[in-house]
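Running this now, will post back.
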Amino acid sequence: MSNFSIKKALFGVLSNGKEVYVYTISNGKMSFSVTDFGCTITSILLPKKCNQGFDDVVLGYSTLNKYIDSNCCFGSFVGRFANRIGNAEFELNGETFKLDKNDGNNFLHGGFFRYEKQVWDTTLGENCVTFYRLSPDGEQGMPGNLAVYVKYSLSEDNKIICEYRAKSDKDTIINLTNHSYFNLAGHGSILNQELSIRSDKYLEVDDALIPTGKMIETDGTAFDFGMFKAIGRDIEKTGVGYDHCYVFEDDKQLKRVACLRDEKHNRKMTVDTNLCGMQVYTANFIEGEIGKEGIVYHKYDGICLETQNLPDSPNKKNFPSPVLKAGDEYYARTDYGFEF
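Update: finished.
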């Protein structure tokens, strides 16, 4: 007999009267919640030792209004092109497309019109929720009417499976990801939690965090997570913290790319994806943000493991192409697996 359950609850009402809901999916051992406002993961509850309740292992807010007002991207779905595009422009089929300069001189996470601030259509399954939205031609400066489907599932073996599908009526570019901030302790610093990444290359970036086009070997550097090590061990050598994209084989196959563990709380999270990159971000610019239960978040209180196409790939011919041809289907999958 299945132990899955889905609960729907009113999360809040927008100023235009639109109701926003949150959906909680449980398999009897763990659960996660997601809202139709931005396809945002609002909580992931893992059991404490000896079944003494649960810890919420993602950062976020308790109310809809906080998500409306925030630009921290806690748990949000990001598109049409996640991460950065240098000089906020790219060329496709001989035409130059100008985008929003919302990150200095560059384009970041969709510009000024963010997917995370929209209410999406919703369909429920036994152990999943699927969101849909049509992104019209020209939105965010991007070409093509793009139909986007975002499906979050929970498996019996404690995996949150994120699947993204999209189809455009014009050639376009695409890069979709989830921007959850994980903390396997629930809250507090993540610097003593340990991370491993199955990659020996990361992207070199300039002062504006735009890739230079070079892929740098991690061996012997602060970016080497070939073996488990504490996130904070070498973080000072990076400057302000990790905000870099690791590179994997562009084979479109689902593969293990990373693992995060907290031995004190006896928890581990695995990351499997069919994508060629993963942005590692250690919440370097989160300071004094009041989150769930009134907890104040600080720098290094969470880590994002954002699987994606490579940043600025529309402008880097040596990177795997992010172009989605008209009529073709884009498919991306990432599994976040939990052991406790």
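The first helix runs from residue 64 to 69. More later if anyone needs it.
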